[in-house]
Structure formats: C-alpha cells, structure tokens
Design brief:
Layout lengths: L2 E5 L4 H12 L4 H14 L20 E7 L4 E8 L5 H8 L7 E3 H10 L10 H13 L13 E6 L5 E7 L20 E4 L3 E6 L2 H6 L2 H10 L4 H18 L8 E5 L5 E5 L4 E7 L2 E7 L7 E2 L11
Parallel strand pairs: 3-4
Antiparallel strand pairs: 1-5, 1-11, 2-3, 2-6, 5-6, 7-8, 8-9, 9-10, 11-12, 12-13
The structure holds aspartic acid (ASP).
C-alpha cells in the first residue's frame, strides 16, 4: 500500500511519476523529493524554484524543508539564493543531529560543499513580472500579491512517511522574509505513527496556528486526515475571528499511516493531487468539505481520470 498527496495542480506531473515509483518499491522520501524537484525545475511554475517569485529587490530567495516521519528528523533551508533544488539541500540536512536548519549564506555554502547544482533562479519571465510590478506600484503597497507552495506527503509500502515543501514565498516579499514553509509544525509535520500534514497559504497566518502539527496531533487523537485539516483550520479561523481577523487563503493536506488522505481550505476551490493503487487523480477541496469534487481539467491535465 502506498499513497502520495501534493498541493496544487502544478504537483500533478511529478506526483504521477512518483506514484509509479512508489508502486515499484521506491521509498517515501525519494518519491517526495522527485515530486518537489520536478516543480522546482519547471520555469513555467512561478512560485517555486527556478523562475520563482522575486522579492522587492528582484532577487529570488527560496525556502524548503524535508521531514522523515519515521525518525522525526528534519532538514530545512531558509532564504536561500541560487540553490537549484532547495529540497535536495533540505533532505541532506535531515538526519543531522544539530545544524539541520540553515539560512542564507550558510545554506548556500552547504549546498556548494555537497556538490549540489547551483544556478541563478531568476528567469526572463520572473524578472519581467518584477519589473512590471515595480514600474506600476510602490514597494510599500504591500507584499501579498502571489505565492503558492508545493507540499508533498508520501507513505510507502514499508510504512515509511516523508514530507517535503518548497516555495519562493510571497511575491515582492521584504528581503529576509521567511514563511511557514520551512518551519516545522507550521508548514509541515510528519510522524509515521500518526500521520503527516502540510499547509499552503499566507505563512504568517499558518504559523499562528502551527497548523501542520495541530493536524497531526488531531490525527493522534483519532481524527481522520480530512477532519484533522478541517478542525485545525476551523480552530484557527475561530480564534482569528475573535480577534477581528480571518486566515488568508489557507489550504491543508494530510495523510494517515493507513493511506487515508484528506484536505481542507479557506479558498472556494483548492486543487490537490493524490496517487495510490487506484491511480493518480486531481481533486479539489472546498471550504471544510470532503475532497470529492473532481477539478474541471484544463488542457494541460485533460487526460486525468
Ligand atoms: N506559505 C507560503 C509562504 O507564506 C506561501 C504559499 O504557500 O502560498 O511563504
């Protein structure tokens, strides 16, 4: 038995391949890294990796994390520039007892020392987007203009669980800004005994509820993945509501040790993909509803069953 689940339509091509790899016996960690890396490498996907969203100064800084749900070890890179595949650096850092979360130059030096590929992550199209935005608006107008994180959770036939996340964070973010994506408990969490969860959306709000740890804790107490996502989100929404706020565009995915999956979102529609013995499918979750609505496929994914 195996299951892999990931956020947004962009995850689908890599996830479909990773599901086939899991079927052939590849471990959960390799499946996660394969899927995330595929998104990082695609210059057309503008919120992760190569061609990612620039900050206010026109530079692309990336956040990524990897967690092994069987050892509870974690690795992460924060605000890293020019690392072609931040997920590879995060995975290499996972397993270290200390110094497993590196930021900025430290992360970059680590990647170079490990022989990981380095590249200028800006593309003509990411720089055009940045230049156009600078030309039409003032930097002070706020940074919340574009984002999205690839989050992938996998369970393999041997009961191993892993999670990987990768993002360029918010478009036009303040230099040095770090979101929830590389922060354990907020952007992701995995414990092979109870389950795994990950979040995407405005990181500053996700962190306020430590949403991924919250969802895994709910699974530890017996909640299904779908109920855990829904309750974690509903609780944060309730608390923020009491403060006169609402959580910004947050979506969550979760996976149980027996391969059950679930998702919840504050968006009208949140697409996510799942691969298991039944095949690979792109779903959509609506706010606090069961993820059983098939996304109307666009041309690119029209073949999806
Ligand atoms: N959570 C990411 C961040 O705040 C962005 C996203 O997932 O859309 O950096």
């Amino acid at each position: 038995m195996y299951t892999i689940i990931g956020t947004w339509k962009m995850v689908y091509p890599g996830l479909e391949e990773a599901a086939r790899m899991l079927k052939e016996g590849v471990c959960a960690g390799d499946a996660v890294v394969h899927t995330v890396r595929r998104v990082e490498d695609d210059p057309e996907l503008s919120s992760v990796g190569y061609g990612g969203l620039p900050d206010r100064e026109g530079r692309v800084f990336l956040d990524a994390a990897y967690m092994d749900g069987n050892t509870l070890r974690v690795g992460a890179v924060l605000s890293a520039e020019n690392i072609a595949n931040p997920i590879l650096a995060a995975r290499l850092l996972c397993g270290r007892k200390t110094d497993c979360i590196l930021a900025g130059h430290g992360a970059e030096r680590f990647a170079v020392a490990q022989g990981l590929p380095m590249r200028d992550m800006r593309t003509e199209s990411s720089m055009k987007r940045w230049r156009d935005t600078v030309a039409e608006e003032s930097f002070a107008a706020g940074a919340y203009r574009g984002h999205d994180t690839v989050c992938v959770l996998a369970l393999d036939g041997d009961g191993r669980m892993a999670v990987g996340t990768s993002t360029s964070g918010l478009f036009m973010k303040e230099p040095g800004r770090v979101g929830d994506t590389p922060l354990i408990g907020s952007g992701f969490y995995a414990d092979a005994r109870y389950g795994a969860a990950a979040a995407t959306g405005l990181g500053e709000d996700i962190m306020r509820g430590c949403l991924s740890y919250e969802a895994v804790s709910l699974m530890r107490l017996g909640a299904s993945p779908e109920a855990a996502c829904r309750e974690a989100l509903a609780h944060l929404a309730g608390r923020l509501g009491e403060l006169g706020e609402s959580p910004e565009n947050i979506s969550m995915i979760a996976l149980s040790p027996d391969g059950e999956f679930g998702a919840a979102t504050t968006l009208p529609v949140f697409p996510f993909a799942v691969g298991n013995e039944k095949g690979s499918v792109l779903y959509a979750a609506n706010i606090y509803t069961k993820p059983d609505i098939h996304v109307a496929a666009d041309d690119e994914i029209a073949h999806i069953d």
